[in-house]
Amino acid sequence: MIAKLKGRLDEIGEDWAIVDVNGVGYLVHCSARTLSALGGVGAACTIHTDLQVSENDMRLLGFAEASERDWFRLLTGVQGVGSKVALAILSALSTGELRDACAGGDAASVARANGVGPKLAGRIVNELKDKAGALPGGTGAPAGAASIAPAGSASADAVSALENLGFKPAIAAQAVARAQAELGEDAATSELIRVALKKAAG
Known about the structure:
Layout: E1 4-12, E2 16-21, E3 24-30, H1 32-37, E4 44-53, E5 58-63, H2 66-76, H3 83-92, H4 95-103, H5 107-110, H6 118-132, H7 154-164, H8 169-183, H9 189-201
Parallel strand pairs: 3-5
Antiparallel strand pairs: 1-2, 1-4, 2-3, 4-5
Helix pairs in contact: 2-3, 4-6, 7-8, 7-9, 8-9
């Protein structure tokens, strides 16, 4: 599976971009927020990706931040939310706004996105409210939830390690947040991973 592309922005459209990686052009469908974050044509860019394969189609989705990709996966897990609707939601709301909307039961904010009616918005908020606190973004995180972890930090490395071991992003982030609360902000990555593994498995 293609998880990340690093290259140059070759072309850009309304909801897609072509990223040139060593002479190979990858067509990537993106939210408006990701497209605006990629820079101009010819600029160097790194894009996190998710590959969706169906009976009739194979589509690469791109995200400026890994947290946006995590939200995309959560959204497409809700019945009635396909990749186009998920990208529309991520175009209308930042990951922080989406997290706050789900945590606070604010379906009206989610319904601002193109193609999302009140009924679907209500279903999204209902199904994701318990998972919202475990993902980056937002200000209304419940106690013990993961905060935004800077890339390269011990907590970010620990979350990545748990994901590589097969834990879902939300579970990994929550376990690491609980481990960090127990060990303190200066905990080493190895210690965070050790304690977080116990919490995630338990």
